[in-house]
Backbone:
């Protein structure tokens, strides 16, 4: 999944502005995600990519880059 594809999902689920979504952006502090929206994001990514991201890995995700890294490492 590319950053652009992830941005589309994040805009839809988090309601964030596309220009706010950078690799360094913190999901909670910068994009105002809560635990429910993070779980929705997790499910949507799994659905779109077919990649299973373990729940334990989600606990380690803090930034947009962490999301991309989790997708890549669970291919």
Residues:
């Amino acid at each position: 999944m590319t950053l652009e594809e992830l941005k589309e999902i994040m805009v839809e689920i988090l309601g964030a502005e596309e220009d706010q979504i950078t690799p360094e952006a913190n999901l909670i502090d910068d994009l105002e995600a809560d635990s429910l929206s993070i779980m929705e994001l997790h499910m949507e990514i799994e659905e779109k990519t077919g990649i299973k991201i373990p729940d334990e890995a989600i606990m380690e995700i803090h930034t947009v880059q962490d999301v991309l890294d989790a997708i890549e490492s669970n291919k």
Remarks:
- The mean pLDDT is 94.
